[in-house]
Amino acid sequence: MAIKITLILVFIFLMIASIALAIFKGYKRYQLKDNLYDLRRETKYGTSEKLNEQIEESEKRLKSLLRTMILFISFAVVMLVSLILIPGNIHQVNTGEVAVVRHMGTVTGIRNPGVYWDWYFTNEYEMYDTKVISINFSKEETASYSKDNQVISFDLNIQYRIPNNEVRYVAENIGSTNALKDIIAPKMLDATKTVIGTKTAEQIIQLRETVATVIKDSLSTPFITDSDSQFITITSVNIKNIEFTPDFEAAVAAKVAEEQKRQQALIEQERQLAEAENNKQIAIKNAEAEAQSAQLRAEAEADVARIKAQADQDVAKIEADTALYAGQKNAAIALQKLASINGWTVVTTTEANGTQYNKLYKPDETLVTADELAKGVEKLIEVYKIEKWTGDVPQYQMGEGGVITIKSI
User: Fold this and answer.
1) pTM above threshold 0.70
2) Burial 312-324 (b: 16+ CB within 10 A, else e)
3) 127-244: what fold?
4) Strand partners, 357
């Protein structure tokens, strides 16, 4: 359209400018013609070479102005013809439209969006909208029976578009987009009611989107004509503001209330079961904890008794070892004293198993005999008597090889 308008404005401007220039040249020629008339009147009173030259020059200018006027008028006529012919032959098809070309009433082709040159005296362009088109149906129009014989009504919106390659079919067989809408609207409504008749009222309420999808699928199959051609594309189906009879809505409300009560009862039952189970688990845990506590107490008491018994044994052993050590110590002191009184020497040896042996040697490095030991003990006793002996005398036993064993003190 912009190109067409621009050309129209250009042609009008050039035509007006040509006419204006032609008028201006005509006015100049008119003035020059009057001047020439005056010059010719002067020739009645006599001629001269200069006057003849002026007349001749004026006649030439008159002819030149006439030619210029004719040229501008001719150009204006050309611009007028161009204005009539050229812009009208330029056809622009916008995005979202398809043009059907009719030559003398017969469809000869289609034009997709773009700019085209066609002789408009014989070719006619019919514009078809290929954008999404909406058809709205009111509750009164959609009122129908569901599968369970419930009266249902709703607002229905169906959106469709005409594919570019189907525009020619619509133009040849239907005539226009308005005629197409008049044809498909009742069929869409019938197809929708057929789908509603296959669903229960509850399904329509709960599965509105699913029902809309089923309606769209039914409309997407060839349903307008008996042929396999489907010359429209269904883009969306929307169901809104569903309404039922008052009795059915009251029944649905009562059912919903009953379902809510049932759900609340189930929730309360589950809560009580959960609470009982929780109490059971707590009781089990407490019993297990009590049993474990009793077991731990028994084990602790057993450990205490065992530790105490072990401690008593350790104390007794320590006491025995202490007594033994004390006796051995006194015996060793007595042995040293025995050896000192008699001039003997005590030699102590330890075997591999830890057993210690004491031997008494005389100054000549020979072992003390049993008789000598007995006499030496008698001397020791005499010394003890002198030192207020208490009566405890170590006992010695002579073993083989002169080994002296301390038995007690």
Assistant:
1) no
2) eeeeeeeeeeeee
3) Tetrahydropterin Synthase; Chain A (3.30.479)
4) 349
